[in-house]
Amino acid sequence: MTSHVPAPPPFAAGSPTATDFTSGPALYIASAAAEIPPGLPLADAVRDGLIPEENAKVTGMSTVSVADESTSLFDLVTAAASSAVSQAGLPASDIGAVLFANVFPYTRPRLYNMATGIAEAVGAPVAFATELSGGCVASINALVLAALRMLHSQERAALVVAGDVWRQPHIDRFNTEVGYIFADGAAAVVLSREAGFARLISAATLTDPNLSGIHAEVPSDRTPVDITARARAFLTTRMGTDQVLPRLRGGLRATLDAVLAPAGVDLADVDHVLVPAIGEPFLYRNYLDPLGIPISRTTWDHSAVTGHTGGADQFSALSYLVDQGRCKSGDTILMISEGLGFQWSVAVLRVE
Question: Which residue, 97, 297, 259, is CA-closest to 188?
């Protein structure tokens, strides 16, 4: 547990950093694939005493993807990566970089670079392989880093993979925070110079370190991670809800404005908005209501039967859109991610 350190006075959040990817050589999403384990009905979880019935109902979800004990995180991420590479229509030898995004450290191999393992699994003799964390924002951050690297190298493609498995005793997927259910799964995209179903248009990110304490560890009477206790401690000792919510909404709005400007579109004109796969109360409070987005423009129908797969949410939703044939030429796709700390990273794609 961390000891209490007096908080410095809040300071103004910085400005978002945006990148216009249309000003250089075109970069495309050549493929998107997901590996989602079978869904466990929440009714069964209630029956088995894993989650109170009222907490299950408030999420608005019907099932959550749960990997069996014999399935490892490495199994999921390599399966997603292999599917993405096979669908991309390019040889694995074209992949010059593999980036792996992961949120929860306890169910992954220790002292092991998962990115190099993924590269071996797909047969890619990469020059660069690395891992990123920092919460659920890591996947979009990894995509942006891969794109920036490609702009300054001769590499023809990059593979970006995200995945998590959540297990006891480290975390209670059903009761970490009311309204959230953490799900097992992985997803991957291949970024290519040659061609793809969508072009990467722009990306932007913003961090507000004043809100880092929302997720800081605090004493708790239980072993699994207790996000509710952390947030409660922050809201009662550091900032009230009347201060936090405006910062959260202001940070998100500023990041969206920054990413949409290079794309030349307004939020109202975006066809598909891919947001974190959180429960309905957070979905409406954090995104739909303040941004004026109808739920029909999201992939809630996918989220409601998977749960929150961490950083894999956006890539999984993108794969779902493509698999369901819901993207048409000219469509704009906005991928929104939020991470611990507090950070927002968003990207805009345009379907070819």
Answer: 97
Q: Are 30 and 194 in contact (CB under 8 A)?
A: yes
**39 contact partners, CB below 8 Å, separation of at least 6:** 62, 63, 64, 65, 66, 305, 306
Place of tokens 């995004």: 101
Report mean pLDDT in 10-residue bins for the chain, 352 residues.
56 83 94 97 98 96 96 97 97 97 87 95 96 92 97 94 94 89 97 96 93 77 76 81 84 95 94 95 92 96 96 97 96 95 94 96
- The encoded tokens of residue 115 equal 């990115």
Report the C-alpha gap between 129 and 96 in whole angstroms. 9
In angstroms, the CA 120 to CA 100 distance is 13
What is the full DSSP assignment across 329-340? TT-EEEEEEEET
Angle at which helix 313-323 crosses helix 138-151, to 10 degrees, equals: 80
pTM: 0.93
Buried b (16+ CB within 10 A) or exposed e, 46-64: beeebbeeebbeebbbebb
